[in-house]
Amino acid sequence: MAHIIVVGNEKGGAGKSTVSMHISTALVRMGHVVGVLDLDLRQKSFGRYVENRKAFLDAEGLDLPTPIYRDLPAISADSLAPGENVYDQRLSAAVTGLEREVDFILIDCPGSHTRLSQVAHSLADTLVTPLNDSFVDFDLLARIDPQSNRILGPSVYSEMVWNARQLRAQAGLDPIDWVVVRNRVGAQQMHNKKKMAQAVDALAKRIGFRVAPGFSERVIFRELFPRGLTLLDLRDIGVQNLNLSNVAARQELRELVKELRLPGVTVDF
Fold it and tell me: What EC number(s) does this enzyme carry (predicted)?
């Protein structure tokens, strides 16, 4: 069966689409077949990213490694049994259709709490949660005392992940490997950066996730999206001399994919 990677965080602007595109494309470049789904049915940022890639490659006559993107299929209400949810059935049909032909399915969730996101989290073998280096984002994982920085308890998103873990346990499935990815970490050793690191590490031990380094804030990511490109595509489109920022960003991607510890994956880029 395909290994399911879910990229989720109930807050927008954490870099989910960027992380999703780079992980999925990196896996394809390493020889794996990857199917991808975008559960943000309104904005479809990840879906647009893939569409931009196909349009750019067609226009330039290029053939670069690309994941298989699928929309959720339409389900007739008449076909549902009493009590069945149409969104559950649409997601189930999409996953079933892909897992016959791929090694990995990557599911990008919306930056809000939805039924689709809940169900997707319960399907996750690996859960990747991008988190901006900010206590505004951290608040989704846990409530914290502003004076002592003591963790008071899990917050809304952590509780949803806990519920997903319970559902998987009841179904006899392997536990979710939850990886929190720290994005947009500042280059300087600032006081807030140190406090965030301490808080994330303390919470990791308490509620059971691993911490992985993510992407620094870089202009290149905003430039890649309109053409649907990733850091690994730059040389293929004629950029022979990567600047120091691009080289550093490739290294960040390499370390992120390594830290995910996905089955059968040897990082070779």
Answer: 3.6.-.-
CA angle centred on 257, ends 256 and 263, rounded to 5°: 140
Can you name the residues that pair with 183 across neighbouring β-strands? 132
DSSP string, the chain: -PEEEEE--SSTTS-HHHHHHHHHHHHHHTT--EEEEE--TTT-HHHHHHHHHHHHHHHHT------EE-PPPP--GGGPPTT--HHHHHHHHHHHHHHTT-SEEEEEPPSS--HHHHHHHHH-SEEEEEEESSHHHHTTTEEE-TTT--EEEE-HHHHHHHHHHHHHHHTTPPPPEEEEEEES--SS--HHHHHHHHHHHHHHHHHT-EEEE-----HHHHHHGGGT--GGGTGGGT--S--HHHHHHHHHHHHHHHHHT-TT-----
The domain covering 3-136+159-184+207-260 belongs, at the CATH homologous superfamily level, to: P-loop containing nucleotide triphosphate hydrolases (3.40.50.300)
Query: According to the model, what pLDDT value does residue 192 have?
Result: 66
pLDDT confidence of residue 4: 98
Domain boundaries in the chain?
Answer: 3-136+159-184+207-260
In the predicted structure, residue 187 carries a pLDDT above the cut 60: no
pTM to 2 decimal places:
0.93
If you average pLDDT over each of 134-143, 153-162, 170-179, which comes out highest?
Answer: 170-179
Whether the pLDDT of residue 188 is over 60: the answer is: no
User: With bands split at pLDDT 50, 70 and 90, how would you rate the model's confidence at 181?
Assistant: very high
Which residues, listed in sequence order, are joined to residue 105 by a DSSP beta bridge? 4, 35
